[in-house]
Amino acid sequence: MSPSPCTSSIIGTGSYVPERVLTNDDLSKIVDTSDEWITTRTGIKERRIAAADEATSDMATKAALRALEAANMKAEDIELIIVATVTPDMFFPSTACIVQKKLGAANAVCFDISAACSGFLYALQVARNFINTGTRGTALVIGAEKLSSLINWKDRNTCVLFGDAAGAVVLKRVCEGEADAPGRVLSTVMGSDGNLVDLLKVPGGGSACPITAENAESRPNTIHMEGRETFKHAVTRMSQAAEQALELAGLQKSDINMVIPHQANARIISAIADRLGLPEDKTFMNLQKYGNTSAATIPVALDEANREGRIKRGDVLLLVAFGGGFTWASTVLRW
Ligand code: UT7
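ok -> structure tokens follow
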């Protein structure tokens, strides 16, 4: 197959985090933990918690509006909305359809993607396929999570790790003659291993285990994770995916200007940076402020890196994620 003459370009980024800050010290008042344990084992200092009446679609809409503003586009210009989330407002309709309504994006086709923490990069690749093939010309790709709604606040193994946030990008079809367009997606690799579904999951609340009066007490509708095992797979899979995405883009590790990795644990991020031979100043980290926000982590980090001037036009960015499933993905961008 000859290569498509058109590619996808990120022309705007946006993000939103809720106002309420929950610090490690706050958590140490509700479970047997400490700022010292959380900081040394994870790097997290605080996380944001959405208001009771603030749904995933509300955060997603705010992030999307910021991305649209940055792209200088109106909601009606958008032809595709994909929301990556494991905390949809409800089972159906999709959160993407709810965001469509809130934005007034009447011309978009809308659906959600469930790939846990890799969800945003999965969604970006799906949108890219729509755009590169000419099926759609513009897309809003959003990662948004209200993980606080899936947390057992009595489980210190998990409640200290997660937070709420949303991030978004506007993707646009760019054809010959615009070859130097910014934010070009150069390559993506994706993978999954369903044999490991049990290591990181929310076992209850779906069709396999509906919540009943009998099981509600044991909180099956909250996050369960085998942390140590997940950690090992995360380092291996993200490092491999990063190298494969670079190779697919025809680039070397030394070409990378900034890695934006999934923000689950500072030790995982350091291990990946080590394997890629990258110094700290080329590794973006904001998990100290937000914790792990699953599908929202990468678009929030990308938006922050962009707005803080940490990345500049022409830079090679490597995005890499890992999550429940297990799923993993890596994308190389020419900013
Ligand atoms: O986003 C998807 C991908 N997610 C990840 O990649 C997360 C990967 N996993 C991790 O980041 C780490 O495994 C954790 C941060 C979850 C845990 O760190 P760890 O160094 O692997 O700790 P551990 O699970 O081996 O637990 C060590 C000890 C245990 O005590 P014992 O059994 O050794 O006495 C835990 O009970 O730390 C204890 N512990 C805590 N202590 C204080 C676990 N959570 C806490 C806590 N405060 N919050």
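The chain has a mean pLDDT of 96.
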